[in-house]
């Protein structure tokens, strides 16, 4: 029993709260319609507690980012006729986000972050007549119907960064009467884009990027011939900003006495004879500078650089290649390795001399081999007066001297030998 009473009170409380205007909004009547204005309140959802009988609902300048499917129908907002969602952060709209808004006539979505919307997004609003999508970001459009609606009369696509209009963009808007495409990035317009709009009465194409090329001129002619209100662009095109500045500062010319400007002399017969100024001959450098173009200078510089490169390469190869064989220059590591090996050999020889002073000079370091004659100097055959230079001591073979140095004597060998 207590649970039933609690549920009844809860239902009454919920219904009672829907009859009160929330503190974030201002509720009044405009042109006989119930209006709720919830502006600049950092609202992130369309449900802020406004009574369901609202007919003019303004949620501009808030932080709404998404419109989920059936977001209005689930709350019970089925009487809305004018909906303002401008200056929000909306970047995604569900396919059935506006389901239940069967009486919606005017929808304002300008200054949001929309980049793409489905062509069937507004199919659940059969009475929609005015749609404002200006100041969004529809940079790239596919060649398919942008929207599908049978009753839409006014479409605002101003300042949407549109670069080109596909031919099938307005194929499913048979009742469209006013179209605004001003301040976009388009440069030309084809007639095929506007032909599927049989009830078009006014079109706005204000833009600084239009090119008066044949397709655009043909589109203007088609618009004028069908009685559509339009401000022609290519007929009396106003000059651009820099052209206006130049035309504004053009000074007025005054009459000038040619006698003060030209070099003219009069002879005795009063006939005017112009004086020709003496022409000074050009120096060779001036002639070269006058006749030699920059392109020729570029080609000449390239040829000189190529020639120097070839000569330098040839000299470098000659330094590497000797006797038909090209050797790679030794790297720093290889040179360091050779120096280390030489140092090790020198150290080994020095230590051997210090440890074994009785060893003879190694064969590798002998200057000459031993000779059989032990009595130098000796006479030269055939030349009695010429005496051969004496040999050095270490090149003389002695009877008790071995060619190969004996092994080093160690203490162990001396003990066993004795």
Average pLDDT metric: 78
Q: What's the β-strand tally? A: 17
**Pairing-aware structural class of the strands and helices?**
alpha/beta
SSE arrangement, N to C: HEEEEEEEEEEHEHHEEHHEEHEEH
- How far apart are the first and last residues' alpha carbons, in Å? 132 Å
Strand order of the largest sheet: 1-2-3-5-7-8-9-10-11
Largest sheet: 9 strands, mixed
Using only C-alpha atoms, the radius of gyration works out to 53 Å
Fraction of residues in helix: 25-40%
What characteristic shape results from the CA principal axes? flat
**Beta-strand proportion:** 5-15%
**Count of discrete alpha- or pi-helical segments spanning 4 or more residues:** 8
The stretches of 5 or more residues where confidence is low (pLDDT under 50) are 5-17, 364-374, 391-397, 409-418
How would you describe what is shown here?
- The protein has 418 residues and is α/β, with parallel strands linked by helices.
- The chain has 8 helices and 17 strands.
- The strands form 5 sheets. It has a 9-stranded mixed β-sheet, with no helix packed on it.
- The chain starts with a helix and ends with a helix.
């Amino acid at each position: 029993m207590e649970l039933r009473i609690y549920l009844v009170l809860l239902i009454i409380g919920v219904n009672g709260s829907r009859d009160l205007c929330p503190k974030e909004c201002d509720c009044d009547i405009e042109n006989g319609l119930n209006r709720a204005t919830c502006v600049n309140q950092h609202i992130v959802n369309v449900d802020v507690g406004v009574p369901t009988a609202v007919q003019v609902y303004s949620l501009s300048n808030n932080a709404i980012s998404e419109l989920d499917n059936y977001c209005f129908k689930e709350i019970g907002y089925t009487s809305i006729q004018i909906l303002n969602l401008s200056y929000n952060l909306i970047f995604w709209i569900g396919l059935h986000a506006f389901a239940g808004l069967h009486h919606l006539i005017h929808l304002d979505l300008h200054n949001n972050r929309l980049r793409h919307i489905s062509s069937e997004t507004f199919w659940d609003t059969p009475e929609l007549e005015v749609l404002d999508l200006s100041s969004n970001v529809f940079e790239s459009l596919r060649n398919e119907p942008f929207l599908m609606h049978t009753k839409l009369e006014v479409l605002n696509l101003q300042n949407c960064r549109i670069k080109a209009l596909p031919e099938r963009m307005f194929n499913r808007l048979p009742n469209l009467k006013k179209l605004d495409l001003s301040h976009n990035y388009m440069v030309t317009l084809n007639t095929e884009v506007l032909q599927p709009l049989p009830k078009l009465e006014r079109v706005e194409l204000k833009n600084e990027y239009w090119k008066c090329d044949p397709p655009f001129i043909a589109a203007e002619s088609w618009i004028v011939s069908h009685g559509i209100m339009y401000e022609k662009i290519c007929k009396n095109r106003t000059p651009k900003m820099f052209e206006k500045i130049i035309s504004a500062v053009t000074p007025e010319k005054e009459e000038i006495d040619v006698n003060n400007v030209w070099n003219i002399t009069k002879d005795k017969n009063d006939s005017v004879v112009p004086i020709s100024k003496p022409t000074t001959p050009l120096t060779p450098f001036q002639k070269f500078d006058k006749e030699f173009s920059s392109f020729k200078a570029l080609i000449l510089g390239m040829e000189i650089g190529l020639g120097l490169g070839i000569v330098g390469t040839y000299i470098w190869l000659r330094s590497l290649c000797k006797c038909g064989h090209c050797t790679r220059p030794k790297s720093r590591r290889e040179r360091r390795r050779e120096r280390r090996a030489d140092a090790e050999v020198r150290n080994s020889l020095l230590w051997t001399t210090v440890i074994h002073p009785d060893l003879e000079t190694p064969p590798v370091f002998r200057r000459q081999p031993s000779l059989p004659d032990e009595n130098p100097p000796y006479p030269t055959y055939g030349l009695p007066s010429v005496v051969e230079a004496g040999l050095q001591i270490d090149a003389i073979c002695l009877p008790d001297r071995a060619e190969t140095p004996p092994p080093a004597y160690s203490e162990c060998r001396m003990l066993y030998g004795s």
